Amino acid sequence: MNGRRAGAAGAVLGLLLGVGLGCGRPRPAELRIGYLPPLTGELAVIGTSHLEGAELAVARVNAAGGITVGGRRHRVVLVSEDTGNDPEEALRLAQRMINQLGIAVLVAPMSSETAVPVAAQAERARMPTIVAGASHPEVTAGKRFVFRTTFTDHDQGRAMARFAVEDLGARRAAVLYDAATVYSHDLAEIFARALAEAGGEVVATASYAGSAAGVDADYRPELRALAEHDPEVLFLPNYPLAVSRQVLQAREVGLDAVFLGSDSWSDKMAADAPELQGAYFTRHWHPGVDIPESRAFVEEFRRELGHPPLTSAALSYEALNLLFTVLDGLESLDGERIRQALAEVDDYRGVTGRLSFRDGGDSRKDVVILKIEDGRRRFHKLFPPER
Amino acid sequence: MQLAGRDAPRAEDRAMARFWAKSLEARLVGHFFLLSLVIIALAGGLAFMQARRALEHSVLDRLELFASLGEDRLRAWVEDQRRDVVYLASLIETRRQARRLLSATDRGPVAAPVRTQLLAVRELQPELEEILILSPVGEILASTDPRHEGEFRTRDRFFTEGLKGVHVRNVYPSPLTFEPTLTVSSPLTGEDGERLGVLAAHLNLDEIDRIIQWRGRHALSGESYLVDKQNVFVSGERFGRDQYPRGVHTIGIDAAVQGLDGSGLYHNYRRAPVIGVYRWIEGLELALLVEMPQAEAFAPARRIAWLVLGSGVAFAVLLGVGTVWLARAITRPILAVTAAAQRVAEGDLEAAAPVTTEDEVGTLAQTFNDMTARLRVVYDDLRHEIAQRQRIQEEREVFVAELEAKNAELERFTYTVSHDLKSPLFTIRGFLGLAEQDVERGQLERFRGDVATIRGAVDTMQRLLADLLELSRIGRLVYPSAEVRLSELAREAVSVVGGAIAERGVAVTVADGMPVVIGDRLRLAEVFQNLVENAVKFMGDQAAPRIEIGGAASGGEAVCFVRDNGRGVEPQYREKIFELFERLDHDAEGTGIGLALVKRIAELHGGRAWVESEGPGRGSTFYVALPRAS
């Protein structure tokens, strides 16, 4: 080939390349966050509220120009799928998101039942994950990539036990739990241990096998058995549907103990049910928590969505904002790098309080105790983390 | 090329380019070779593509067949397992055991024998990874894996669906093991239709994977495997699932997982190029992939391509040699014509191109030869004509010179004659007047004297006229060409003037062996006579007069001399004395025509005459140079 021909070939090639390059306009970079709330099923109310909080956080960060990673602006995309609070489905969706949907991080606002397999899968895939809401210790136990922004069952079990003894002066407690639900089962055990430590005693325990019992479940045999021991308090670490029936049936069988609940007591339960009046239960957050971040969130949420936020909205909002803070300015979206940045979180001031992952995937969190009174859930007490 | 072009071209490149530009043979062979290489490359490429396409089809057919077989085997296998579970659930013994487990307050002792029995079943059916009996609320009553006993699988679909009827929960990620699992479940019902729970079995998917594994009878190393809907290898053992924490992705896997069937060339999970068939097995929620390394699948195509290329190059080399020979055959006559043309250009009109062929080149050579022949004729004619003209020109010049010389001589002669003849005429006229006076006065004596003087003048005139006649005769002489021996001639001349010599008493010597010349003998004799007479005449008062005659060959001439020891000649007269009627000494006898004659005769013979003298009184030597006889 002589020089001229080579030159012509080069020109043609250049033209083709130029045209090719001209066609390919750079797409704005995306930061894809996997999000797995239960939008249907038993926890639909909680899940929907979670999604509200998450979407608010995402809208806010995108309005502010997104997140800079590796010197490049990234628009945050929330890849959300409904788990239906089904562990199998949640696991499948987590795999799908990790393997197929190209997410950089996973946020799991879910129950312990679903969070346990999802967290385990995330750990296997070395996918940095933030769990909000699921309180079972197993979720984070022995995991490097899974971080939890909310308290654990140890925290809430112990807080409720101490509250029963110290604040209510109760010594005799009864527990009714769902044997088919690990969360319920394990929290019941934790409570019993903590109560013993606080100077009380679980005088009677009864269990049933979860959702198989259905909406028309009859807990009266178990409740009668418990009533025989004349407990001062009845701890019900169960899902809302079951709890609604249990409190009703307890009163029916003449069990007049004070009801104590856990963080699974969702807003789906009607606070104006007469049998629920005077009950106490734990919460991750309440609008009444008087810290600036909380107040600002409530105000923003009301402004943007026109109604007050539920607790789960605050949890998702907090989890995502924590994530944005950590990711912004990172050099890459490499899983290990994100994990490392999350592990360095120290004294982050979120909506529900301070967060720190210096000592592992669990942050020490205050436990909020609410009381149902006059048909309302009222902020009753804040239990600071022990140890 | 561009780089080289930008640099200053090196000397050898230029030489190469010149060779290329100038050598017809190199260009012919080079272009041919290039052309054949291109054709060979094209042929090789085409052969490869063609073979590859054919191979692709046949390999894909084989892979498709294999995939179909695999799919059928899979479905049959799952169906078998389903039947086994259904059969197991329908056994009275199983149902009896389930009832016992349900009714037991302390399950431990009851579960142990049941477990043993389930383990025995699994022993027979290794495809069943774990066999479980669940209560109607989802509690695991007994399992081949005792760790799971007491757990609630209330929410698991294999349980909820298994309560309703026989169910195959196709490949899904197990929340327990996180690995792809396939579970068959069947309700356990009492004789009266009472719900006893569910019998479930997780299938061993390492086993399922084995079913579709590549079992080629041929030595080909294909591979087939299963991937679940989440891009997870079904057999973790085989692939090391931990190597793919975020799933395994290839073009084939991703397409199959999206529910597409197809085939193609792509890179497999090891990044190795493969030819593969992928299928989404509906119902089983599995992707089946059957792949073969492209290197292996297309090896025959490559072999064909190499064969074509190799033999092509060999043929090209052979043809190249042929082309060299052919090019030589074509170019040799052209080169011969070129060489002949070059010789003609250098002036050799005799050069001829060999006519070796009858083709265009032969015609060219013939035409060239005809052309040079014509050129030669024209050139010869031209040269001849030019020579002729030149000769004519030369002749004319000689003629003109002669004419001019004669003319000048004539003028001189005319002058001399008129002058020399005038003087005796004056004498005659003067003495005639004196004679008249003497006659009138009667002085007879004086009259006689006058007459004598007049007679003398008349004699002088007569002599003058005689000499003139002589000279004019010389001018017209025609050469009778004869060899003349100069020594002989000189002696003859000396004897002719013997009287004068003897009178003056001069000693004359004539050298022997003087050269021989060709000329007019008589005239040449006059040369020597005149020279000897002249020497004698101007001997002066020499007491021992002597004349010496000699000669020798010098170059192409015979130079002879006549030397005397007489008065000599002063330098200013050395030319003049050869002119007509010039006499240095008017008292001396003679008409002054002798030396002019000598010169004239010498010149007529193509020679010269001159005198050398060392000065007055020291003698002189007259030289005559004549062309020698060849």
Fill in the keyword field for this structure:
heterodimer; A: 387 residues; alpha/beta; 15 strands; B: 630 residues; alpha+beta; five-stranded mixed sheet; disordered N terminus
Structural notes for this entry:
The complex is a heterodimer of chains A (387) and B (630). Chain A is elongated and about 70 Å long. In chain A, strands 8-7-9-10-11-14-15 form a seven-stranded mixed sheet, sandwiched between helices. Chain A has a six-stranded mixed sheet with strand order 2-3-1-4-5-6, sandwiched between helices. In chain A, α4 (112-124) links the parallel β4 (105-109) and β5 (129-132). Chain A has helices at residues 3-23, 44-63, 87-100, 112-124, 153-167, 182-198, 220-227, 240-252, 292-305, 311-327, 335-343, and strands at 29-35, 67-69, 72-80, 105-109, 129-132, 146-148, 172-178, 201-208, 233-236, 258-261, 280-283, 348-350, 353-355, 367-373, 376-383. The model of chain A is unreliable at 1-25 (pLDDT under 50). Chain A is α/β, with parallel strands linked by helices and 387 residues long. Chain B is of the alpha+beta class. Chain B contains 17 helices and 16 strands. In chain B, the strands form four sheets. A five-stranded antiparallel sheet of chain B has the order 2-1-5-4-3, sandwiched between helices. A five-stranded mixed sheet of chain B has the order 11-13-14-16-15. Chain B has a four-stranded antiparallel sheet with strand order 6-9-8-7, with helices on both faces. In chain B, a hairpin with a 6-residue loop joins β3 (167-173) and β4. The longest helix of chain B is centred in the middle third of the chain and has 82 residues, at 360-441. Chain B is rod-shaped, with a radius of gyration of 72 Å. Chain B starts with a helix and ends with a strand. Mean pLDDT of chain B is 83; it is low at 1-6.
